[in-house]
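Lab channel / #folding
Pinned by the channel admin:
"Please post every new chain as: sequence first, then the structure tokens as a reply. Keep commentary short and put observations after the output so the thread stays searchable."

First post following the new format, from NK:
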Amino acid sequence: MFVKLIVLILALGSTGIGVLSVRQSRLVASNEMTQSRLRARQHDQRTLELRMQIAQRITPDHIRAMLGQEVDSTMVDQTNRRIDLLDPIDPEAAILKTQTQIGPSIIEPTFWTLDDGTRVYVLDGEIEQ
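Reply from TO:
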């Protein structure tokens, strides 16, 4: 009986130690993850500060002065340009037109989905450059 009690105490003690070690390792991992997030946030903050300093020090006139005569006189501001379709068409109408020309078989349209969710349809299976 005494041996069973000692074995039971040892088993419960080792189980407790195992649980505590798992808990400690989980806390260490959580702490490391928090520290890495803080370091990433500090790096992002430093990056933003450096970008701000660069933006304050560099202007288009300053760049032109650094380039001297090498600068192309046709430099224009590209930020206000809009992207328009050269040949605007309705993709659904073009797909229906393609399906009626091919016949009763339904052909799935080929398209690319861009990062912003925009779909670019490829009509007639050709990609023009």
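NK: The mean pLDDT is 76.
TO: also worth noting, The longest helix spans residues 2-57.
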